Amino acid sequence: MKSFTKKVYEITRMIPKGKVATYGQIAELAGSPGASRAVGMAMHTNPDAPHTPCHRVVASDGSLHGYSGEGDLESKRKMLEKEGVIIMGEKVDLAKSLWDKQITK
DNA sequence: AAAATGACGGTGT
DNA sequence: TACACCGCCATTT
To answer: Are A26 and A20 in contact (CB under 8 A)?
Structure first.
């Protein structure tokens, strides 16, 4: 486990319930703006699905991508809605559910 | 050490 | 709005 990946997990873990963060945002918080792809890989190699809320990480346009956990993208979407994330059709309403990065104020 | 890969992002068609 | 292309960084082979 490299430092960057570890950092990504740390950040992903502090995403508040009912909110979502984009890969790019996490990459920036991790200290490497633009490394959205690297973040994606970190999620893919995510060792602790339930421990790390990787399902709260979405694309810049609110689209959900993969999931290393048990279910699939549908399960993720349901999970998010259940937590309070507003989802419009197949995408997340970033305007209301995007993590303000306020570090759980 | 170099090349290929991927849960991205932005721009172009 | 949907699909295709190029550029981005970290990880893996």
So the answer is: no
Q: Is A105 exposed, middle or buried, given 0-12, 13-18 or 19+ CB atoms closer than 10 A?
A: exposed
Structure tokens at A103: 């570090």
Q: Report chain A's C-alpha Rg in angstroms.
A: 12
Nucleotides of B under 7 A from a protein CB: 5-10
Q: Nearest Cα to A68, choosing from A45, A85, A88?
A: A45
* Measured CA A60 to C1' B3 distance, in angstroms: 28
Residue with tokens 């200290």: A31
pTM, two decimals, is: 0.89
The token pair at A59 is 């694309």
Q: Could you read off the pLDDT of A25-34 as tens digits, one per residue?
A: 999 999 999 9
Chain centroid offset of residue A80 CA: 10
Rounded distance between C-alpha atoms, residue A52 and residue A34, angstroms = 21
